[in-house]
């Protein structure tokens, strides 16, 4: 079982019950899924960028990503319907908790000039999104084998329905929010 999942059940559930004033364990905020998205807009010019992005995202997430394709043709971007323009992966279960643990403990402290993540990046329903500018902050990525530096968006989908409850959960887990 994932280390963070055990800590959630043993440590965070009682603290969340106390802080939020809830008695029902199922009403507490918990992670549902994590969506990692790499939008590779320059793949229109160089098709190798998609393959490199898929390879890096597979190493980061631990499962095979899905290639996303353009829904519409846009002439100004030289984009045709059906062109590959990115990749994404959805993590659930044990892989999700392992990824959150690595994100909080290893990846975020490795970012240059890091001053914390924004506490305003909640969407009104308790989900939290953050963006990384380069994939090389993950320890699984070998810097010598990286062809293209690529950013990514990470969305943490949290049940509970409110931003305050999700903020409490992430704070307890050690998410480094800006003051």
Salient structural properties:
5-stranded antiparallel sheet; alpha+beta; 50s Ribosomal Protein L5, Chain: A; about 180 residues; 4 helices
Give the termini distance in whole angstroms.
33 Å
- The appropriate CATH architecture is 2-Layer Sandwich
Number of structural units classed as domains = 1
Number of strands: 5
Order of helices and strands: HEHEEHEEH
What is Rg?
18 Å
Which assembly state applies to the chains in this document? single chain
The gross shape turns out to be elongated
- At the fold tier of CATH, the topology name is 50s Ribosomal Protein L5, Chain: A
Q: Quickly name the level 1 CATH class.
A: Alpha Beta
Largest sheet composition: 5 strands, antiparallel
The number of helices is 4
* Poorly predicted runs: none
CATH superfamily: Ribosomal protein L5
Tell me the structural class: alpha+beta
Would you mind describing this structure in some detail?
- This protein is α+β, with helices and mostly antiparallel strands and 179 residues long.
- The chain has one domain: 50s Ribosomal Protein L5, Chain: A, CATH 3.30.1440.
- Helices cover 32% and strands 18% of the residues.
- The chain is built from 4 helices and 5 strands.
- The chain has helices spanning 3-20, 48-61, 93-107, 163-173; strands at residues 31-39, 66-69, 84-91, 128-132, 152-158.
- A 5-stranded antiparallel β-sheet has the order 2-3-1-5-4.
- Helix 1 crosses helix 4 (163-173).
- The model has no long low-confidence stretch (mean pLDDT 87).
């Amino acid at each position: 079982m994932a280390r963070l999942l055990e800590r959630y059940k043993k440590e965070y559930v009682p603290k969340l019950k106390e802080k939020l004033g809830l008695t029902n364990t199922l009403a507490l905020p918990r992670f549902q899924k994590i969506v990692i998205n790499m939008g590779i807009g320059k793949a229109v010019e160089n098709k190798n960028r998609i393959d490199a992005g898929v390879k890096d995202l597979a190493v980061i997430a631990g499962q095979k990503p899905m290639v996303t394709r353009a829904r519409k043709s846009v002439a100004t971007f030289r984009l045709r319907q059906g062109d590959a323009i990115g990749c994404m992966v959805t993590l659930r279960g044990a892989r999700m908790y392992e990824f959150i643990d690595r994100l909080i403990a290893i990846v975020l402290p490795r970012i240059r000039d890091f001053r914390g993540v924004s506490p305003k990046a909640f969407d009104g329903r308790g989900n939290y999104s953050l963006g990384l500018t380069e994939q090389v902050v993950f320890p699984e990525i070998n810097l010598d084998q990286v062809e293209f530096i690529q950013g990514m968006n990470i969305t943490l989908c949290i049940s509970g329905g409110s931003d305050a409850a999700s903020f409490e959960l992430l704070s307890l887990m050690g998410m480094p929010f800006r003051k």
